[in-house]
Specification:
Helix content: 40-55%
Oligomer: single chain
Bound molecules: calcium ion
Strand content: under 5%
Organism: Neodiprion lecontei (Redheaded pine sawfly)
Structural class: mainly alpha
GO molecular function: calcium ion binding
Protein name: EF-hand calcium-binding domain-containing protein 1 isoform X1
Pfam families: EF-hand_7
Keywords: Calcium, Metal-binding, Repeat
Strand order of the largest sheet: 1-2
Number of domains: 2
Shape: globular
Length: about 220
């Protein structure tokens, strides 16, 4: 049963959650409040519930869905607010990294913790975030196959080429050589960290998953009271 007729309007940060977030993130009190407001707006915006049977007489039913930012809203947010025009596989991976408990929606706390890395993460946090995204099967390694899949999706196919996958295979081979520091045939987090220290531009080698500096600044400025 919904707690009140307004549904998500009741979402607020409890004092305890607030204190935890204040400690765990780099956001100020005012920023956390602003982020909470944005969250409430996102989860109540129309078209939130993509699945069938969740809209009854124009009113979203809270019976079967957990409250949070769903995939559709997430994609729009990345697209419109942060200019991340990356393809679906990568957006899906980003969503999964944000939705830590695999609930199918990003709850308030996860949303704020994710944004902390996304907007103000340390180099180490950003490395971990990108690595998790690129490690498609979550086994702790980025393999050549995973690189192939990621690069295949980012590259525009040349129709004239006889074997369009050949270029992607070459590129995956090259990326593996660059990133596999200990030469065991796959990229561990350790490899990735070492290689990116050498060559910071490789951080997002397999597709954009972080906002530009400019987008960060402009989003953070909207949080100011
Ligand atoms: Ca993997
Ligand atoms: Ca390795």
């Amino acid at each position: 049963m919904p707690e009140d007729g307004g549904g998500a309007k009741g979402v607020t940060l409890t004092a305890k959650v607030f204190d935890t977030l204040k400690k765990r993130t780099k956001f100020s009190r005012a920023e956390l409040e602003a982020l909470c407001k944005i969250y409430c707006k996102l989860i109540t915006s129309p078209g939130q519930h993509a699945g069938p049977k969740t809209i009854i007489n124009g009113m979203p039913s809270t019976a079967q869905t957990i409250e949070g930012i769903d995939r559709i809203i997430f994609r729009e947010l990345m697209h419109n607010t942060f200019d991340i025009l990356t393809e679906d596989t990568l957006i899906e991976r980003m969503f999964c990294c944000w939705d830590r408990d695999s609930e199918g929606a990003i709850r308030l706390e996860a949303w704020i913790l994710g944004l902390d890395v996304f907007l103000r993460g340390t180099q180490r946090e950003k490395l971990e975030f990108c690595f998790r995204i690129y490690d498609l099967n979550n086994d702790g390694y980025i393999t050549k196959d995973e690189m192939f899949q990621l690069l295949k999706n980012c590259l525009i196919k040349q129709p004239s080429e006889e074997d369009p996958d050949e270029g992607v295979r070459d590129l995956s081979e090259l990326a593996l050589r660059k990133l596999d520091v200990d030469r065991d045939g796959k990229v561990s987090f350790q490899d990735y960290e070492t290689a990116i220290k050498e060559e910071p531009l490789l951080l997002e080698a397999f597709g954009q998953c972080l906002p530009t500096e400019e987008n960060c600044v402009s989003f953070l400025s909207t949080l100011q009271p």
